[in-house]
Amino acid sequence: MPVGKTGFVVAIDGPAGAGKSTLARGLAEAAGLPFINTGLMYRSVAHRALQQGVEPDDAPALASIARSLRFTLGDGELPHLQVDGREPDPSLSSEEVEAVVSEVSRHTEVRAVLRARQRDLGEAGCVMEGRDIGTVVFPDADVKIFVSASPGVRAGRREDERGGSEQAAESVAARDALDARTNPLMAAPDAQVLETTSLSKEEVFAKALDLVRQAERTSQR
Q1: Is the pTM here over 0.85, yes or no?
Q2: Burial level of 116, CB count in 10 A (0-12/13-18/19+)?
Q3: Which H or E run contains 64?
Q4: CATH assignment of the domain containing 149
């Protein structure tokens, strides 16, 4: 069902550590579109809940936190997510946030608030990445890409992201288990699936950019 977008939207979905953020940022730069990492929005709610002592099973309080946070797109060559007018805090990637973000994000009340904000932010055009972008947030996206990789490869990528943490494999496995229970991950029926286990970042980017360029040409006809 269309949700009223007015611009060109690229939706990128996939599990933790699949390389969504790197790919999405690169495509946004190439296409001249804002880059929106929706995972940071859920992490912001989880981080604020930890600060305020809100339990991760308190759905009404978490939804209230989600409504209180101000999500905008910053200025510059690559507009991207700002939280309360600032760059997302590095602590959003902390182990403490990682431990609760899946439980926080499972609540329908929280997801409803953030999905509405995601649509507002991206409706004029964007590259948006997350877990349900092509299926729920922008089911009428111009391009839908589902990025997949083996657990071992994803653990290695997460380790690189987190500065060589030895707990990367455990982190990915734990996150997969939590997400499977709280927010099942599915590719949209019309998504292009990129299995990236044996591909370099450059090869993944080239394949994805080709899909975007094809869709751009189609939209201009």
Answers
A1: yes
A2: middle
A3: helix 59-68
A4: 3.40.50.300
75-133: pLDDT as tens digits: 889 999 999 999 999 999 999 998 999 999 999 999 999 999 999 999 999 999 998 99
Q: Determine the structural domain holding residue 17 and report its residue range.
A: 9-219
Span 42-55, pLDDT tens digits: 999 999 999 999 99
Cα-atom radius of gyration of the chain, to the nearest Å? Answer: 17
Separation in Å, CA 102 to CA 63, 83, 130, 181, 192:
14, 19, 13, 9, 25
Name the phi and psi angles at 165, rounded to 5.
-60, 130
Q: Is residue 4 a part of any domain in this protein?
A: no
In a domain, 3, yes or no: no
Residue 2 lies in a domain: no
Please report, in angstroms and rounded to a whole number, the separation of the first and last CA atoms in the chain: 23
Indicate whether 161 belongs to any domain: yes
Return the axis-axis angle of helices 201-219 and 20-31, rounded to nearest 10°.
40
